[in-house]
Structures are given as C-alpha cells and as structure tokens.
Amino acid sequence: MGIVSIPGLPTLHPRYKWKDHNQWLREVLSHRVPQARIMAFQYDFGQESQEVAWMQLMQHAEGLLYSLIHRREGVDSRPIIFALLLAKDTRAFRSILDMTRGIVFLGCLNNETRPNFEDLCLKCAAVEMGIHKKDRVIENLRQDNRWTFVKEVMEDFRALNGPFPVRILFELNPSNIGSRQFVVRTMKQECLCSEQVSRLGWDSEQLVPAQKNHAELTMYPQRSDDDAYFQLFMKTLSETIEEVVPKSVMLPKGLTGSNGSKSVLSLELSSDVDDVVSLFTAPRPDLNVPGGVNIPCFVTWPYDENPNFVGREDELEQIHVSLFPIDGKGPQQRVFALTGLGGMGKTQISVKYAFKYRQDYHIVLLAHADGQSKLSESFSLFADKLGLDVPWLLIFDNADTDDKIQLLDEFWPCKSQGSILITSRDHTLVKRFTGMELVEMTKPSAVNLLVRLVHFDKDALDDADVIEEEIAAEKIVKRLGFLPLGISQAATLIINDSCSLASFLEDYTLRELVEDSATIQLDSPRNGYKYTLRTVWNMNFETLTKDQQSLMKLMSFLDPDRIQLRVLKDGLLKPQVSDFDFISSPHKLSKCRAGLLRSTLVSQSRNGRELRMHRLVQAYCQLRMDIEESQRNFRSAINLIKAVWPVPSREMVHNPALWEKQRELLPHVQKLCEFYVKSCENGQPLIPHMEANWDFASVLYEAGWFCYESGLLESVSELLVPAKEYCIRHLQKGGGYRILADIYGGLGSLATESNQFQRAYDDFNEEWECLKLAFDAAELTRPSIWEVFGLGRVGNGLQGLHRYTEAEEYYRMALNAWEGLPGDRKVWVSNMCTCLWLQGKLDEGEKTVKAIIKDENDATNFRTGLAMNCLGNIQISKAERLKQEGKTEEGEKRLAEAMATHTKVLQLFTIALGQRHHKTADIMYKVGWHLHQRQEYQKALDMLNNALGVYASQPKIFKNEIARTKYKLGCLQQDMGAHIEGGALIREAERLRKEIVAPEDWEPAQGEKAFDDIVQFWTR
Q: Which residues are in the DUF7779 domain (predicted)?
C-alpha cells in the first residue's frame, strides 16, 4: 500500500522544515501502516525571485501525478491515500484514480460556490504561509486572472463523487488574519475553513470537526498536543485505512524464538530478541511475584539480633503503629524517620524492630544510606526490583550525608505496598516524613541495660552491697547521659577490669579530670550535660598497646564501616609501604586486631573479615592526635590504599575485571578525600601545603575513574574536582602534569556521559594541553598511550559538538599515534566509525568497524559490544536509505540485521557491565526502538521501562536520556491506543528538553531526532 502526503501552502511557511515533515511521516505512519510505502511531495515556488500564480499549483499537481506513476513502479494494486485527483480523464493518470482507496483532507476548501470564495482562498493562503494579506505573494494571487480555472477544477473534482471513503477535518477555532494599514499591522479573527466550505457533497464523505484554527489544522499534529487533536487525527486515519484494507494485511511480521527465562551468566549468545527481552521482563504469575525471588526475604547484614537489647518498648510500638497500622488506613507506602545523636541506638532499634516484627513483612531489607556507593552495594544484595505486591519493610540506616535527601530519592522504591524506616542524625527528617527524634534512654531502661551487660548477680552480694551497686549503676548511666553506646562501652570496661560498679564509678570520676577542651560534646535534645563519650573512650584507648593505638590511628582515616583485614594484609606485602612496623607481619596484625576487639573500640563482622569503628570513636581517635601526627597517619592511609588499589594498564583502562576489588576500596578513598577537604576548610590541612603528594591525587583519580567506568557517575566529581584543585595548587612543585591530564580526561568523560558537550570539549582540550606540558617536562616520552587518549578524547569532544570533520581528523591522529603500542583499539575505531556514520559515510564506516570485530560473542569487556553497536546503527541508516530508494524488501532485511546486531550487543553489555549500567540502558533503548518499529509493543514497553529505571537511578546525570526515553515511551503509548497517557509522557519529555536546550536554540520537537540530538553520540 502506498501513502502519498500532499502538503498545502504551510510548506512555504518560514518555520516549516521539510525534514521535520518527512520525520513525522516516518515515525508516526510507519506504526499505523507498517507495510506502506510513504511518498511525500513539496512545493518550491513562492520564493522572492519567482512570480506566483495559480497555474503553478496545476504544474505541481501534474508533476505529482507523473511522479506517482513513476514511483509506483508499475504496481497497479497499491491503493493511494491522500492523493490529489485532478485528472479524471487523462489516460496516463487513470490508474491513480482507479487505485485510490481513500482521501483525508486537513483544512481544505472544497466548495467554490460559497460567497466570497476568492477572498477566503487568499486568507487561507496568507495564514498557511505565515504572511499578511498585503504581502507580494498574496497580491499576485489576487490579481491572477485564472480564478475561473481554479473554480472549474474544484467543480470537476466535486462532480467526481469518488466511490472510496473520504474524511474531511474542518476547523472550529478562528484564525488571526493579519494586514498592514498605514505601516501598522492589525489583526482580526475569522473561522476560515468551516463545515460549509469544506463539504464536497460526496456520498462517501464524513466531516470531522477539530478544535483547531486554520494554521494548526493544516499541519500534521504533534504527539505532544494536549487537546486530543493527535488522537482525533490518528483515529480518523486508522478508520479510513481499516475501511479499505483488511486488518490481516496490516499485521507486522512476528518474531520467532524462545521465551524461556534464562540467567544472564549462563545465556548462550544469540540475536533472538525474545531471549534478551526475557532477561529484563519478569513473568506475570497470579500472585504478581517475580520468579526467582525468595520469599520471605530477610536481609539485615551485617547485623544480627542483639540478645542484650533492653527497653525502648514505647519507641518500637510507635514505629509499628506508623508502619503497620492494624486498621490498614493511611497511605499505602508508609515512612517513619528515627533521628537522634550518634550512639543513641538508632541502628539497634531499627534492627530490633526488624526482628521483632518480621512475621508482619514478607520482605525486610536494611540498606546503608550514608553514601551512593554504599547504597548501591546494599541494593546489589537485594532483589533487583522491589515491585512486589506483598508487605515489605526497607530500612535506610545512617542517612546522615549532606546529600541524604537526594540519595533517598534516588533509591526510593517506586512501588507503594510497603513500609520504610529511616535512621539518621538529622532531626529535620521527622518533619519531612512522620517519625520521632530519639532521645536518651529512660533511667530504668538504662540501668537495666547496664546491669544486664555486666551480668550483675544480686544473689552473690549482701543487701548493703546490692543497694550500693544499684546506686552506683544509676549514677554511672546518668554520667553517661543514658546513651546506649556509652553504657555498652562502660560495661565492657567493668568486665575487663573485673571491678564493681561502685569502683568503676570512683575510677571514672578520677579519669574525667584529664578531659581536655577538644571533646565531642553530646548535646541532649532535652537538656545539656557535661560528660562525653571521650571520657569513656580515653579509658579504653589507654589500655591499648602502642601498636594497637597505631592501628587505631591509621584506621581513623579509613571508612569506619568496612575496614577489610585483607586490605591491611595486602598492604604489608607491598614493598613501597614502609609505614606499618606495628603490623609488619600477619602475626602482629592478628595480635593488634584481638586487642582492639577486646577494647570494644572496634567490632568485627560475623565472618571475621572486616573491622568496624563507630564514627564517634573515629572522630575521637583523630582528636587525640596533634596536627603532625594526624598528617603522618593520613599519609600512611594514602600509601596503604595506593598500594592495594588495582590500577588497570593505560591501554586497557576499561577493565570490568577489576571493579569488584575497586568497589570495596572506594569508600576508603572517599573518606580520604572528605577528611582532606574538611581539614583545609579548618585551616589545618592533612597534607602540608609545602608538600606535593601526587599519590593522593593519583588515588583520587583512580577512584573517580572507577566510578565513571562502573556507572556511579554522581560520585565522580566529588573525587576529581578536589583532585584537580590539589594538582593546580601544587603544579609549581613539579611532577603533576600527567596526573592533572588524567583528571581533566576523567572530568571530560563525565561531561560526555552527562551530555554537557561544551564542557566535555573544554576539559579534553585541557587534558591535551597538560599532556603536551608533561612531554616537555619529561614526565612522558613518545610513543605514549597517553598521547593516543589525549587526541582521541579531543575527537570525542568535537563529535559531541557535531564538528564531525574535525573529530574524524583527531581520531585518525590518535590511531596513528597508537602505531607500535600494545592494546585493543576498538574503542577509538568505534568512535571514529560512529563519526563516519553521522557524516553519512556508511560504506567506509561499515567496512572499518567490521574489520575490528573478531568475535561477536566476546563478553570479556564492552569493547566488542561498542563496535557492534556502531555497526547496528550503520545498518539502520542503510536500511532507511534503501527504503527511500523504493527498495522496501531489501531495506526491511537490513533493518532485521540491525536488530539482530543490537540484540547481541545487549547480551554482551549485560554480561560485561551488568543490567544496571547506563551503557546497558542505552542499548535497552535501542532494542526497544527496534521492537517499537516492529509493533511488538509490550516487549518494547518493557525494554524502554527498564532503560528508564536505570537512568532514573541518577536523574541529574541522565536527565537527557530520561527525556528521550520518556518521549519514546509516550510515542509507544499513543501507538498502543493510550493517547492521554502517551501525550502526558511526551509533554513531560518536552518540558525536560526545554530545560536542557539553550533558550536561543530551543524550538518544539518535531520527532525523535530532536531528542537524539541532546544525548551523546555513543548513546544514539
């Protein structure tokens, strides 16, 4: 079937773009009539150098008819919709009339007998062309003496009374008619193409009213329209097609293949889309529970139930009433914030609540909420999605970072059937959610906790001693501020020292005299008290050996939640680490660990592989050190992490095999960065300004690059910006150009992923300038892989700015610089071939990229997938070119090849990068695009929603991708018949796009290309 689009005079409007017109025809009509050939024609008169006359319309009509005869290639069985019938009796055109099966008119004047018809024609022409009534073009038409000819053509056409269905859309809203009088432009309103003047008088015609004015009606409706015009138009078109073409003819070709559920890790690579879709689409059993999820699911790692937990019954009850109301009233998703000072027992209460009421929840999950990397790690332990129609409890523990609200939003469950418990020191969360600010324990509960922890045995004492001990217990808990952590620490000391409560009370009074002014003051929400945890911890610390104290001081600059013993042991084996005489052998390390555990200043994980330190203990340890000792231990911590951090070789910088170990070490680097920045703010830098510690900058860079590679993009700048500032501050000391170049390269790479095209180019230029200085300073020598990356990244920056010719030149220079160097060139060759693709050099791009694809099943890294993604895009463009040339069958075959290629890429990326990586989401979008083209709407919906879920996990970084995916989802919803929902998504996408595009460059989107243009070239 052929579809012929005959545009009106709006194609001469200054804002009209022919490419947008064609894009609309391809994107919209291809889903309604997938096997139709779409033909579009354009007027080219009305320019300043040409005279304008009604006969020119006739000449264009004849040109149209001759083109139809030629482009139908002798096929007489294709009906034509939208064809303009001017030549009823012309034998050469007779087959067009005979094969026409329907017409849809948009704002067309069909009745020449209406009063003032000539003036109405001129007004319509002026509105459609965006000019005023006194314009030269309109005056030429007004003075044309061929009005009789025009009316005769229209009369003959009405007399034709075709046997095929005709739909006529006419306007209900008035149009603004502009004119110029005395150099002043005036406007008046008039309804131009009304029902009366639109009628043909045919038996087969149906008139359809539209709430549009003439200018709006004569242009194809946009998907983003919020007045239901798009829905009305598509409904009218679909009904016309279905009336003349059997539905069976319209069905797209289906896909065959396995639908079995497969594991990503054990999947045999294939190009069958069903195999891939099954990886991302959960089955739908009756209970709406995804397969493979173990229910009940109870994850509170690393916490077990505390057998010594006492008190807090009122708080536990209040939490449960809020999170699990008996009457079931209130919002489906319930949130309770538990706030208070560190050491108040928030985490222990949340764990106790989880264990006490676990029978009420099918799923209980505890997430560490004090940073993106930890939340990401916690969520990797959970089910990939929480969208389960069963009761669940999620605990966000220690939501204390400055960006906690953003982190909570980022990891907030999208479903509403469960309960959420948050622990934090920030009391403002109580106002944001429901909850309570946790205060000190009650006196009876605190005393009960203390005597329980010290195993107080009344029966072993006489009555007088019992009374003395009970009084001492009350005084001890009071001095500790009824703080659970302080009570627990004191109890351990009492047991270790084998002293009575009364003796401890006396000793404690003496020791508090050594308290200095640099203390951590614990301010009670109710009233102040002068005693602090430092008093207790001083007693603990002073019982440690010198080696044990040294280990504590070192650990005070690492992440306190997970201090891996393996990291300490591996550090001992590195010859460049000479700071650790106190743990110079595994035996000494074991002895130190045992002493620290006995002191209770640190705890140990259940599996014995990690140590943990309370944040207040960590702060206390730092406060014990003067500035020189702090700087010495901070430098030791840098050396330790530098020694154990796995650094990929430069030519293999994209190395997912190292990610697991790097992920474990990342929190330590983040802590080093945090401590250094705060120390500078306080005027006591942990690295003296007169020194240049390039290892510190290097560690920050390596961690930032890992965050970039693994998809933790929101953490990249938190590491690289301080690293850049450090390098710039110390460049004059020598030796920092190469590492500064690396940092600029990392920042530029982040800018490419976040679609900040100019910033990416600027950062890559800075990288290249630093590299040239590094060569001049003999920090690097040629040939060097750093030169390859510097040149290639400038190419990336240029390509992001659509400066493709320059980008291609830099890519070729980068590949020339690689001569004689080891490594896999796929990344830069793929980027260059993408550049060739975007320039339309399809044959060269295809030949070049195919040459580097040696094994299509290579999932050891993402390089092969990157090359194949480029190949798939080239195959799509070749398919579209073939279709435009009329070679429909060959084009469809090429498009199927492209889908098979992109489906394979999705499998490769899923294995190499994981389902939640943004590059995997990019290819999910592409496969969803293919499925949409094939009208496999449900599969496309699942795939696009999965991509959107990945992007939404970091909304600031992937705002552009979110806008593009929402637009595509909106188009998909509309094509599935959900016009209201689809239109809302498209308008939301357009709102986001308007925030992204510079005001001077923004104009309403005409189709997918407008959204493709706002994402990076490798995302398209």
A: 539-629
Spell out the SS3 assignment of 802-861.
CCHHHHHHHHHHHHHHCCCCCCCCHHHHHHHHHHHHHCCCHHHHHHHHHHHCCCCCCCCC
Q: What is the pLDDT of residue 19?
A: 64
CATH number belonging to domain 2-249: 3.40.50
Question: What six digits make up the tokens of 344?
Answer: 């108040």
* Amino acid of residue 58: M
Measure Cα distances from 404 to 187, 329, 409, 711, 1010 in Å. 55, 29, 8, 19, 34
Query: Where do the domains of the chain lie?
Result: 2-249, 273-283+867-1019, 297-437, 443-541, 545-594+603-625, 645-789
CA–CA separation, 875 and 548 (whole Å):
64
Q: Where does residue 267 rank: exposed (0-12), middle (13-18), buried (19+ CB within 10 A)? A: middle
Burial degree of 193 (CB within 10 A; 0-12, 13-18, 19+): buried
Mean pLDDT, to the nearest integer, of 406-433? 72
Q: Is the pLDDT of residue 139 over 60?
A: yes
User: Which DSSP letter does residue 225 get?
Assistant: -
Q: b/e for 13-35, b at 16 or more Cβ within 10 A?
A: beebeeebbbbbbbbbbbbbbee
Architecture of domain 443-541: Orthogonal Bundle (1.10)
Q: What is the pLDDT of residue 280?
A: 46
> Which pLDDT score, from 0 to 100, does residue 417 have?
62
pTM of the model: 0.68
**127, 301, 298, 135: which is closest to 214 by C-alpha?**
127
Inter-residue contact 233 to 226 (CB < 8 Å): no
| Residue 515 neighbours by CB under 8 Å, 6+ apart | 532, 534, 535, 538
* CB proximity list for 375: less than 8 A, separation 6 or greater: 367, 368, 369, 407, 410, 411
Is 592 exposed, middle or buried, given 0-12, 13-18 or 19+ CB atoms closer than 10 A? Answer: buried
Q: What is the pLDDT of residues 285-297, one digit of tens each?
A: 333 444 444 566 7
Name the one residue in this structure whose structure tokens are 């990019």: 922
Segment 561-617, tens digit of pLDDT: 899 999 988 887 665 556 677 777 888 888 888 888 877 678 888 788 899 887 667
Nearest Cα neighbor of 936 from 127, 53, 251, 178 is: 251
Pairwise CA distance, residues 41 & 32, whole Å: 20
* Chain centroid offset of residue 927 CA: 17
Q: Which residues fall within 8 angstroms of residue 647, CB to CB, at 6 or more apart? A: 702
Of 246-250, 590-594, 993-997, minimum mean pLDDT range = 246-250
Q: Which residue has the tokens 């406060």?
A: 623
Report the CATH number of the 297-437 domain. 3.40.50.300
All residues at 6 or more sequence positions from 500 whose CB lies less than 8 Å from its CB, including other chains: 469, 472, 494
Q: If one looks up domain 273-283+867-1019 in CATH, what number appears?
A: 1.25.40.10
Output DSSP code: residue 245: S
Residue 408 confidence (pLDDT): 74
CA distance 663 to 673: 16
Give the CB-side neighbour count of residue 510, counting CA atoms within 13 A.
6
Q: Could you give the CA distance from residue 384 to residue 920 in angstroms, rounded to a whole number?
A: 15
Long-range contacts of 535-539 (CB under 8 A, 24+ apart): 535/508, 535/511, 536/480, 536/486, 536/489, 536/490, 536/493, 536/508, 537/489, 537/601, 537/617, 537/620, 538/511, 538/514, 539/493, 539/507, 539/508, 539/511
- H/E stretch holding 40: strand 37-40
Q: Is the pLDDT at 793 greater than 70, yes or no?
A: yes
Residue 529 is predicted with a pLDDT of 30
SS3 of 918-979: HHHHHHHHHHHHHHHHCCCHHHHHHHHHHHHHHHHCCCCCCHHHHHHHHHHHHHHHHHCCCH
Same CATH fold assignment for domains 2-249 and 273-283+867-1019: no
Token pair for residue 196?
A: 């009366």
